[in-house]
Amino acid sequence: MEKSRVLVVGGTGYIGRRIVKACLVQRHETYVLMSPEIGLDVEKLQLLLSFKAQGARLVEASVDDHRGLVAAVKQVDVVVSAMSGVHFRAHKLLLQLKLVEAIKEAGNVKVV
User: Fold this and answer.
1) What pLDDT score was predicted for residue 95?
2) Rounded to two decimals, what is the model's pTM?
3) Is the dihedral of CA 20, 21, 23, 29 positive or negative?
4) How far, in whole angstroms, is CA 5 from its chain's centroid?
C-alpha cells in the first residue's frame, strides 16, 4: 500500500491526537500543524514533542496565516482537519473555510 504524506490540523485535540497516532502507526509521513498561538500550553507542547519523537514533522503555521498554511499544504498529499467545532462555531467554520482556500490554492490536494 502506498503511504501518504498527511497533514493533521488540530492534532492536539481529542480526535486529532488519535488521528496523528493512527497515521504514525500506519507509517504515513505525518505532519502536524503547530499554531504559534499555542503559547505556553505545556500539555499541548509535550504532546507535539512526543509526536515529533515518534517521527511526525511539526509545521508551524496558523490557520489565519494564509501563506504559511498554503506552504504547509504543499508538503502533503492529504489534509485532515480535526479542528474542534464545539466553541465559537461561527469562528471555527471560518477557520475551516480558510483551510479549504489554502488547499485550493496549493493545488496538490484533491478536495472531496
Assistant:
1) 82
2) 0.89
3) positive
4) 12
